[in-house]
Amino acid sequence: MSTATRLSCERYRQGWDDWIVLYGELDLDGVPLLARAMDDAPGRHGCVHVQLQSVSFCDVSGLNALLAAAARARAAGRAFRAHRPPPVLVRLCDIVGCTSVLLGDPAPRAAVAPAARRRHLPRRGRRAVRALAALVTVRSQQGAG
Asked: 31 and 21 in one domain?
């Protein structure tokens, strides 16, 4: 059995905002990676966005890491937004009672149909979404090989 983390992430900056895109399983093994990603988010202004669409699993330690990341961002005077959480994370937040803290409103964007989201994206935004989807596909094929 491998002890390597099954979580990977990408970080990028868009304007004042820092984006962290997570892929894989957010469990005890992945917590240090999320903490390092938060440490590497250099901005003191704007929002820290965490894209969770490609997270396939999240346990209580992963939820705790996300809540700690949100607390750290807010303590530094920054906003924190978790985007497109998987159903398992939404359910976990409901059970623990932290939905409004981590996800904002009780109906996260993951519940909105993809076609409805796509209509409101500018052309450049749609290209970025397609490029991100292609990157996720390549990463999943590399992981399967």
From this structure: yes
Residues 130 and 81 in one domain: no
Regarding whether 54 and 20 lie in a shared domain, the answer is yes
- 144 and 75 inside one domain: no
pLDDT digits 0-9 by tens, 7-34? 999 998 888 889 999 999 999 999 999 9
Same domain, 21 and 77: yes
pTM confidence score: 0.66
How many domains would you assign to the chain?
Answer: 2
CA distance 136 to 7: 13
Query: For residue range 65-81, what is the model confidence (pLDDT) as tens digits?
Result: 999 999 988 888 888 99
pLDDT of residue 76: 86
Q: Which two tokens stand for residue 8?
A: 């990977």
